[in-house]
Design a protein that fits this description.
Layout: H1 3-12, H2 17-24, H3 28-36, H4 44-63
Length: 75
């Protein structure tokens, strides 16, 4: 995945830019620029941090149980 796609995927997982900053150490303004495609050359350490955050997010979603709702019986 490209850096912009990683940021967009993290946002789609429900993370804010501030939360992405906290997970990756990338300053929020830089996260914003990457997400908007305004950074043409992302530093490798930023790319790796985004990739790790994405992988962690995927793992968290896979482990999270689906919400349970009792089946409705005719009212």
């Amino acid at each position: 995945m490209k850096p912009r796609e990683l940021v967009l995927a993290l946002r789609a997982m429900g993370l804010t830019q501030k939360q992405i900053q906290e997970r990756t150490g990338i300053p929020q303004p830089t996260v914003s620029k990457i997400g908007l495609g305004r950074v043409s050359d992302v530093m490798s350490r930023h790319y790796l941090a985004l990739l790790r955050a994405y992988e962690q997010g995927v793992k968290e979603q896979a482990v999270r149980p689906a919400p349970f709702a009792w089946p409705r019986i005719n009212d």
